[in-house]
Design brief:
The complex is a heterodimer of chains A (414) and B (282). Chain A has 15 helices and eleven strands. With 414 residues, chain A is an alpha+beta fold. Chain A folds into two domains: 256 residues, no CATH class; 141 residues, Jelly Rolls (Sandwich), CATH 2.60.120. In chain A, the strands form three sheets. In chain A, strands 3-9-5-6-8 form a five-stranded antiparallel sheet, with no helix packed on it. The longest helix of chain A is centred in the N-terminal third of the chain and has 30 residues. Chain B has two domains: 180 residues, Rossmann fold (3-Layer(aba) Sandwich); 39 residues, no CATH class. The chains are: A alpha+beta (414), B alpha/beta (282). Chains A and B meet through α1 and α5 of A and α2 and α3 of B. The complex binds adenosine-5'-triphosphate and magnesium ion.
């Protein structure tokens, strides 16, 4: 393991991959800030900056890492060097792990530099906050109840009764995820949160919409125990409303109330459009977690690339990796498009099954969104981070590296 | 009878293309046994299947039929691999590593610890005459220098079985001579050596046993002495005998035995002459 680690590190350093990567990181940080455009608020600029500069760097490091990983065993095989490694009594798994560690090390250097330069640019970025969703029953549970009621109802169309239960359930689940709550003028609605109003520094992140597709103005008051916030914004925009303490003696509660004082009915999806923001820790701490999370995702991709390099030739491995990456990025959208249809033609059904498979397999890599979390100031929870590290830094790499060792050992070398 | 180090039984290898159509029958039924302490030469013209046989012995290729045992084990067994050293047909080295790092890398892969590996690397670099360039990247080495590094890499873990695919290709005559000396010395230490070559001179000098491959089959196999020595003829070398004296001696002998007697003057092999001329001044 130590030998292949050193070998790979030397290859990456002496082959100038490391130098180019570090130079690229520095260059992006020097050149890009001047072209970042945003609305005129400091927070807007900060968000754009994080997405465009460190975000771009993470994407570059990701592609470079994947391309390097795809060349590891395939190039060794092309140049016939692999035979010399294979005839030694070292375990192929250890060799693969050594190479993977070295690649992760180089990627880590680039990511740490990226984080340092980001912090140097944003030394007084505000603290990050926990984003807390309202307490609601799981969508699948709600969907099951809805389905039972549907089936009891004699007016339910025959097509729905005949359709496979699983499909109906899936449809209802998706519908529940996107369900709107409506608040008509002069009425109010409340949602319960797993946090109470005794804390200070709270805010609500909310996006209202109206029945019309045109932008209307949303007016009303948000009340959370003794805290209130005034809503006076346009619909269809994500806004952040700070909650100020107005009534000192109000009872502590965990239910947030919105009273609509406007002229039109307001709508929002409770599972997507409203979150309570609680103060968490510093930007630096979040930057640290985001960097670790990016590194874990990179480590997963590196292990996957090494597996491809063991099984395929270099160009084919790189091509496959890029196609998989594209499919992984598109799969969630593809799935979204088909959520409203009960009857799907066979061709689409195959594509759908494929997308679903990809979405399921790639969830480990797609679930963490460190750059966007850092940009919006969402605190990456330690539990979330631990899970990413476990899955992306340990479990999946172990699987992919074992598979590559198996292929390297079994595959004939001529 | 000593223990067999390599046992090959009914070995066949047919290369196939992507559609599994046969492309080349590289090895067609080989039976060979290499015993401990042998210096075994595998000879044959280009494309006769020498390298393929070696790759099958190393377990780099899967045989189409037949079996290979290394030290009584399947060729992919780690215990068997721990005991062998391999020099491929071309010296495939990592271009950005220095000669010393290359040796340390392979020593590490063979499970040697750092200190022992360092000592061994220094010793081998001295032996193959590369100690002055030990810290240069091998990517810039000449073909012969690269060959020496690869040979040292094969020797680094003190193997009991050394498999050399054309060890002398790309080497200058002195290098060739050194390699042959090295092989003889290793054989003296009980190392079993298998080498391929189509340079017959090289093989004849060092190999105690040879097999000649032709079109994937063994055309001849046996001890070099037995195969090459004509026991029915005799040749004398008498030091200090001039042309006239020799002629007289031949006539006398011819009369005595009633046979034709021919004589010639011994020539030094060009290799020796070259070595004497160039000396150590490389
Ligand atoms: N990977 C391969 N795919 C297809 N055919 C192959 C492959 N490797 C070798 N062959 C064929 O097998 C035969 C034997 O090749 P091999 O390399 O063993 O010859 P060799 O005796 O080592 O020759 P040389 O003296 O030139 O090194 C040749 O006809 C060659 O074309
Ligand atoms: Mg050959």
């Amino acid at each position: 393991m130590r030998e292949s680690f050193r070998l790979t590190l030397r290859a990456l350093v002496r082959g100038h991959v490391m130098t180019l990567l570090v130079a690229a990181v520095a260059l992006v940080h020097v050149l890009f800030p001047s072209i970042v455009r945003a609305d005129n608020t400091a927070s807007g600029w900060r968000e754009m900056y994080v997405r465009a500069v460190p975000g771009f760097v993470v994407a570059v490091v990701l592609v470079v890492t994947l391309a390097c990983a795809c060349g590891f065993f395939s190039r060794e095989r092309e140049t016939n060097r692999l035979a010399l490694t294979v005839v030694r009594p070292a375990s192929a798994f250890c060799v693969a792990v050594g190479r993977w560690l070295a690649l992760c090390g180089v990627a880590a250097v680039a990511l740490v530099l990226n984080a340092a330069l980001t912090f140097a640019r944003l030394p007084d970025a505000p603290d990050c906050r926990h984003h807390v969703a309202p307490i609601l029953p799981p969508p699948a549970t709600v969907a099951r109840q809805m389905m039972e009621e549907y089936l009891k109802d004699p007016s339910t169309p025959e097509a729905v009764r005949k359709a496979p239960r699983r499909r109906v359930l899936e449809l209802l689940t998706n519908r529940e995820k996107d369900r709107y709550d409506a608040i008509v003028p002069n009425e109010s609605l409340s949602w319960t949160f797993p946090a109470d109003s005794s804390r200070s520094g709270l805010a609500v992140r909310v996006c209202f919409s109206s029945a019309s597709s045109m932008s209307r103005s949303a007016r009303g008051t948000l009340t959370f125990g003794g805290l209130t916030g005034a809503v006076s914004n346009n619909t269809q925009t994500l806004v952040e409303i700070p909650l100020e303490r107005t009534a000192a003696a109000a009872p502590v509660t965990n239910s947030l109330v919105f009273a609509n004082t406007g002229a039109v009915a307001m709508m929002l999806r409770p599972r997507r459009d409203i979150e309570l923001l609680l103060p968490a820790d510093s930007f630096l701490a979040n930057l640290f977690r985001a960097t670790l999370q990016s590194l874990a995702v990179l480590a997963l991709l590196a292990a996957f690339g090494i597996f491809l390099s063991a099984a395929l030739s270099r160009p084919v491995a790189i091509f496959t990796a890029l196609v998989m990456l594209a499919v992984a990025l598109m799969a969630p959208d593809t799935l979204d498009q088909f959520t409203e249809e009960l009857e799907v033609p066979l061709g689409d059904r195959i594509g759908l099954a494929f997308s679903r498979g990809v979405a399921c397999v790639t969830s480990a890599f797609m679930a963490p969104t460190p750059v966007s979390d850092l940009a919006t100031g969402r605190c990456i929870e330690w539990a979330e981070l631990a899970r990413t590290l476990l899955e992306d830094l340990l479990v999946w790499p172990a699987v992919f590296l074992s598979l590559s060792a198996l292929v390297v050992r079994r595959r004939p070398l001529s | 009878m000593s223990e067999p180090v390599i046992e090959i039984r009914g070995l066949r290898k047919t290369f196939r293309d992507f559609w599994l159509r046969p492309v080349a029958e590289a090895v067609c039924g080989i039976d060979l046994t290499v015993e401990k302490g042998d210096v075994f030469g595998l000879l044959g013209p280009n494309g006769s299947g020498k390298s393929t046989t070696i790759k099958l012995v190393l377990g780099l290729l899967a045989p189409t039929a037949g079996t290979v045992r290394l030290f009584g084990l399947p060729p992919r067994a780690r215990a068997a691999r721990a005991r062998l050293g391999y020099l491929p047909e071309l010296s495939y080295l990592h271009p950005f590593l220095t000669a010393r790092e290359t040796l340390l890398y392979y020593a590490g892969l063979s499970g040697m610890d750092g200190k022992a590996a360092k000592a061994r690397a220094a010793e081998l670099l001295e032996q193959v005459g590369l100690s002055t360039v030990a810290n240069r990247a091998v990517g810039g080495f000449s073909k012969g220098m690269a060959r020496r590094v690869a040979l040292a890499a094969a020797l680094v873990a003190k193997p009991e079985l050394l498999i050399l695919d054309e060890p002398t290709s790309g080497l200058d005559p002195i290098g060739t001579h050194d390699v042959k000396e090295l092989i003889r010395r290793l054989a003296g230490m009980g190392v079993t050596v298998v080498m391929t070559s189509h340079l017959l001179g090289d093989t004849e000098d060092v190999c105690t046993k040879i097999a000649i491959l032709s079109k994937g089959k063994v055309a001849a196999f046996g001890r070099t002495d037995e195969l090459l020595t004509r026991k029915q003829d005799a040749r004398f070398t008498i030091a200090g005998l001039g042309e006239d004296e020799a002629r007289a001696f031949a006539a006398e002998a011819s009369a005595k035995f009633g046979r034709d007697v021919a004589f010639d003057h011994p020539r030094v092999p060009l290799e020796k002459f070259f070595a004497e001329t160039v000396g150590e001044g490389r």
